[in-house]
């Protein structure tokens, strides 16, 4: 059965990153289900958490994604805060570039 909403796992890898909470709120407000795992220190912890949460995508903040993460997650989409810049770009990327608010005048965004 397909999910109605994207499920995104946010992880602070290595160094805690306060931007994770702000990003999580933006994703939630855009209708995504957000699981904030908090700080994790090893690739194995991250892989195990992703296995338990079964996300559609994993966002890695803090020190960025560890080497080998994409392979360890078997096809789950991975992004880092530094890759996308602002939260709006993360929303667009997660939706496959089809954000309804991109290039739309502010009075028509919602």
TrEMBL record:
Q: Cross-referenced SUPFAM superfamilies, in alphabetical order?
A: Cobalamin (vitamin B12)-binding domain
Q: Name one GO molecular function term.
A: metal ion binding
Q: InterPro entries, per this entry?
A: Cobalamin-bd, Cobalamin-bd_sf
Region annotation (Disordered) maps to 90-110
Q: Which residues form the B12-binding domain?
A: 3-110
The record's section on CDD domains has: B12-binding_like
Q: What is this protein called?
A: Methylmalonyl-CoA mutase, C-terminal domain
Biological classification of the source: Bacteria, Bacillati, Actinomycetota, Actinomycetes, Pseudonocardiales
């Amino acid at each position: 059965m397909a999910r109605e909403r994207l499920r995104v796992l946010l992880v602070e890898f290595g160094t805690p990153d306060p931007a994770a909470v702000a990003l999580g709120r933006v994703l939630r407000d855009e209708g995504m289900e957000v699981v904030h795992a908090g700080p994790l220190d090893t690739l194995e912890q991250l892989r195990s958490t992703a296995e338990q949460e079964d996300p559609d995508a994993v966002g890695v903040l803090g020190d960025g994604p560890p080497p080998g993460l994409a392979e360890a997650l078997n096809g789950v989409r991975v992004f880092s805060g530094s890759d996308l810049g602002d939260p709006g770009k993360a929303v667009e990327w997660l939706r496959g570039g089809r954000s309804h608010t991109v290039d739309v005048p502010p009075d028509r965004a919602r």
